[in-house]
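We modelled the chain as a single entity of 224 amino acids. Its sequence is:
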Amino acid sequence: MTTRVIIVDDQAMVRAGFAALLAAQSDIDVVGEAPDGAQGVELSRRTHPDVVLMDVRMPEMDGLEAARRLLAPPPGVTHRPRVLMLTTFDVDDYVYEALRAGASGFLLKDAPPADLIAAVRVVASGDALLAPSVTRRLIADFAKQRPAGRGKPAQRLRGLTERETEVLTLVARGRSNTEIAEDLVLAEQTVKTHVSRVLTKLDLRDRAQAVVFAYESGLVTAGE
């Protein structure tokens, strides 16, 4: 199955480079490019991509606002693509907010070409791009700056079983399904089932939102 992708970035050279790289893959089809967030939202509404590569800093409308509009569309708009944020270290706070809005992860703009291709495939498959240690460190850094969650997020944890809570804790610490299976002495398929139930019960879209939720609810704290 071919993954449909659009690239939203204000730098023409970046768009052209990413488009050429991705279009060369037999399972990826680049269906459009846009130079700012506003045009990116319009392009996504028109082309219905599976994945949107979204730069953070752009004129007219930045990537954060564009991601919010794509992931929380107005009534009557049913298409919601996966959004992969493109960023540099100096805009990490925007990336955190994008994860809260429902983005499926982020990728540094100077990442190796193979990482970009792999990231699109990971996000398109319905998973979140949380494997790189820099992502875990980024979320932990922002968790330090925010008090542990209270109220509704913490209350929602009560709906999880003890095992599901364990699984969510390990997901928030950046563990893969294979690593969680090893830690808890479970079959990997069983772990996948637990992760799916956690996402369903907490009304979360993917692992990225699960990590943010775990920190904001106070289930996991920085430095653990």
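As a brief sanity check on the tokenised model: The first strand starts at residue 3 and ends at 8. The mean pLDDT is 84.
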